[in-house]
Amino acid sequence: MSGWPALEKYIDRAPTSKEMMSWIELIVSQGIRRAGYPADSWTEEWAAEQFREIGLADVRLEPLATPIWRPRSAAFEIWPAGRADELIRFEGLALPYTTPTEGTEGRLVRMADGEVRGSIAVQEIGFTRLPQTEVQARATGSYDPEGVFPDLVQTVPFDLPHVLDFDIAIKDGATAYVGLLTGLPWETSDFYWPYDAEPRSVPGIWLSGKDGRRVRELMASGECEGRIVSDATITEETTHNVVGTLPGASDHWVIVGSHHDGPWASAVEDASGVALVLAQARFWASVPQELRPHNMLFVLTSGHMAGAAGTQAFIAAHPELFPQVVLEMHLEHAARQADVVDGEVVPTDDPEVRWWFTTEAPELERLVAESLAAEDLRRSWILSPTAFAPNPATDGAYFYYTGVPLVQLITTPMYIFDPRDTPDKVDEQSLVPLTKGAARIIAGTAGCEPDTLRVPIQTAKADETR
């Protein structure tokens, strides 16, 4: 599995890191980029125009019905039982796709204390500290020339024991949910979670750590009552996947994708992924057709933050494509690791840990490992698609069920669901190596047939992480 030597002389035609950063900054400057928002509609049109300028063929915007959530305000009021004159009010963020309310009242019960039926469930949430030794137990390979993994502990932006507890509260009969972000390393209520776009039948709100600790103190002093007020709309609207193609040296296909929406203006999630897909498109468009190992399809999906609506719609619209796919590559999140200093999220000079979900075909795993080493993409794990969950923890997760071979890159920096995901968090120095590494992997599929790298789909359940 080779093909890179003939292509290496063309790599200088790929965009520079400065060019890619200019794309990222331009996308971020449009504002909050949730599906259906003006900034994301702008990004769809802009990305399609970039595809055309690059020279892709059959550039199109493929429409899909997408659930759109637009929050306006959310507040939580608390008072000692029977003493509403001592009410204290906090502002927060409604949990995405939860039911708005003009005022849902009830007795407050900590989920950890037991029965929540008929009450407002209250829960403290924190981020998980993930030792890389735990990831190693699930990995099929790695590239760690610094030797940092044995001692490295990564902060991931979800509370692994409690990611589904809101749904448990609903199932147990709670009338509302209050999430206290007391375990986050900085002060925020802007936590965009969950993003599966599943409508929840009760209202919910995130409160910052400071406000959460105050609520905790009040509840510890005696029985409390509370009220949630939230204003939001949930509508179904048309958004678009952005698609373009290039002819190659075989009748088979390589798909390269990412998503164009994000929870906020979101530089890493996923303006950086847009830039990485555009970089692949520009590089391969500069290469003679006979040196492209297969036909190539580039797709930027809509609605990742709405239950991966775009990926699901693309798959449903193109069932005839997948028997001919040699590789599906998803590129998300060129991220810098960050520390929290005096309450501020400060990027370091190190990359965030990279997860490369890779089909467990030995030839493909070897190709990925060699490509990571060739471009010095340190702090990388090679993981099976089901290492953490029934499918990869990426926007491209549903491609797993088509049976096509996968290489899907994602990072999970702690700031990814927060407005603090700004351009300074993008790992600019990795943009070109990531572009070259991805191109090496694609080049290495030269001569492969659609079945060369396929393995049976594993359906066993694993722990949810995303």
UniProtKB/TrEMBL annotation:
Supply the InterPro entries for this chain: Peptidase_M28
Residue ranges of the Peptidase M28 domain? 241-434
Write down the superkingdom of origin: Bacteria
Name of the protein in question: M28 family peptidase
User: What organism does this protein naturally occur in?
Assistant: Streptomyces luomodiensis
